[in-house]
Amino acid sequence: MSEHGSAHEQRSVERLINFSDAVVAVAVTLLALPLVDIAGPSAGQSVWTVLGDHTGEIYSFLFTFYVVIAMWAVHNRILNSLRHMDGPIMWLNATWLALIVLLPWFSAMYGESQIFSDGGESGDALGVGLLYWGTLAAISMVGASMGWRLRGRPDLAESEDVGRDWWAAYRGPSLAACFLFIGIVSVYAPSAASWLPFGIIPLSIVLRPRRRPAPAAGEGAAPASR
């Protein structure tokens, strides 16, 4: 590969990363828009009453914000590992970004359905939780597909270590299964579904990407000079 071609591909990867980061930044900002529309306390009403009346919106914003940041961190790790990209990587990334952009809308509907605050037993709430959690599951699976593509095409990556990190390959499907399970539970028991996301925290810790130890002398690294 010529030096010019290598530089061109590197610029393409950098533009992909910059574009993706910008889209995610806009999406997490849009998550806060439903909170901006909440009116302040009226005469004789405390701010705590207002917050209590909008527990669903606040909970949905906070949870979705941190989940998107966690997903972006894994997604960013994949993109930063690219030497150059191919068509599948580009279109998987576009799909991932499309779902991220839709998430603020679904998050707003989920918060407004009052699933977290009053159990969400009304007919209008049915299906909203499944849509929200199903979208999170889809984002996890698309992100996992990008990682699988990179492992299947190690020539696309800067380092061969990316292709060997198979432990991280289970992260996306495991989280997607959890999100989908919560979505199904939210249809039949919305109140119980509001507590299930806390179980995702230990799962994320267990499935975090492993750091490969530095090679010892004689195992791919030159021994230190004396």
Describe the structure.
The chain has eleven helices and no strands. The chain has one domain. The chain is mostly helical. The radius of gyration is 21 Å and the shape is globular. The C terminus is likely disordered. The protein starts with a helix and ends in a 20-residue tail after the last helix.
Features:
single chain, 226 residues, mainly alpha, 11 helices, 68% helix, 0% strand, disordered C terminus
Please summarize what this structure is.
The protein has 226 residues and is mostly helical. It has 11 helices and no strands.
Distance between the termini: 38 Å
Q: Give the overall silhouette.
A: globular
Helix content: 55-70%
Please write the string of helix (H) and strand (E) elements: HHHHHHHHHHH
Tell me the domain tally. 1
- The number of helical runs is 11
- How much of the sequence is in beta strands? under 5%
Low-confidence stretches: 115-124, 213-226
Mean pLDDT equals 77
The secondary-structure class comes to mainly alpha
Largest sheet: none
Give the strand tally. 0
